[in-house]
Give the backbone structure.
Amino acid sequence: MPNTIRSLLDAAVAQSGGRIVIEYLDEGQVRSITYSQLGDTVRKTAELFTVAGIAPRTAPVALMLDNCHEWVEAYLALACTATAVVPMDPKLRAAEVSYILADAQACAVVTDAAHLPLLEAVLPRLPLVQTVFLYHCEGEAPASVCGRPCVSIEQRLDIDRKRALADSSRYATTEVAEDDICAIIYTSGTTGAPKGALLTHANFVIDAAGASESVSLFRRNDRFLLVLPLFHAFSFTANFIIALSVHARLQFVRSLRTIPEDMRIYHPTILMAVPLLVEKFAQKINDALRTNRILLLFQAFHLRGLIKHLILRSLGGRLRVVITGGAPCPTDVISVMRRFGIPVVEGYGLTEASPVVSVSNWRRPKIGTIGPAIPVVEVRIDAPDAQGIGELVVRGPVVMKGYLNRPEDTEEALRGGWLHTGDLATIDSDGYITIRGRKKALIVNREGKNIYPEEVEKCLERDQRFKDVLVLGYHDGQDIGEKVGAIVVPDADKFQKQGGGQMSESEIEAEVRAAVQTLCGDLATYKHPRKVVVRFDPLKRTAALKIARGHYQGTLDRP
């Protein structure tokens, strides 16, 4: 069977058509979609796209939706008919959306009615976007948006149903190759400019197979609780592609706030999460052990089995494993979960590797490591120092083709035939990898989101009253992950001129902080500096006159 997402879908429909693939909550009721129903909807949606002018292997289509079954249907309709998809964070601001759509040269956008105001703001500057496809329209959808045809997918879906299910349909007549691009996922590099990683069908399918082999846990009766956003490579592969490959079930949570209730309704068996969520689960377990009268009674009589049963029941009763990635998971959190029969598997990866590179062995864990590389991947340490620490580099069929229209960045990232991760690591004699730090200035917050300092710096440098700007991550006490901080050196003369020569340093500081908040308005909230330090002396520079970033690393940390 070819290593394509199309082959995975066709096999699942043929072999498990009557099985449930998707569950979601609607007005308090659990709704379900079978593999056969999904297959039919994908065919109809693909035909609708064709009628609207979307053609295989031409311009990509952007997909900007929160997690929902429509995201899955739209993605499969495009990717399974050889159209590349640009998955986008629906919470991005107008400037970020405009940049990605322009850089990807997207010909269309699939989104929902809630994003119409955003599209109206950005489309006048995006002539290549020819069509808007909408979900979740209440009443009639607008005929056009900024002069572009607007198509309500739900209202038009069944118009060409007969043709969509015929042998002459686009779905039936389009062959998908392993090296076809199925996703262009934007990720920033050390330059701060987001770059589109070109990922193929084979990249994702092989990566999912390798991760599944490493974990050796997934089966067709599994229920994957879908918490993480599908536009993120980790969730896309670990939740969606793996579930599809074993003909398992996806369960959509309503929101982060409803996760505990949703788990009791759905009874999931697999949870993919960032460490922050696992940390919250562990905290609730610890709180319950200290305050719940029944659990206190069971502890007094050493009824460990009953305690584990009640805790597991609070998580739906069937949870077998938690897989976490995106940031390190605290060892005490892992220990709490394991103590009550729920293994926590840590994974490591990056978008450019589809994304899973390594997975910890839940049977023989080495807490603090990210496990050995998955079977389809080669890893090594590039230029190790005396302690064996060097850059982790990756090779194998999961590595991207390159960055869209960026040959120099591609050559730099894939030099020597290896993907250079920018992460410093060691590998022990058993092949277990330990991350030791980062070569890049990348900031990883407690939710596992990546923030690139250069992107924020460029935003702040628009203010001509700032002499120097340095953005870097800092640690706040015992909190997991990093927060975004900024050091700003104002041009006091310019501020004085603006203030009529009467401004004190404290007043200038207040103006700087207000300006930082305003300037970051175009960025997603999690990228905003949480700590702003105003200095009136110049920042230290290197011989090449660059700001000596390393000199300031750790200076914003709070004990």
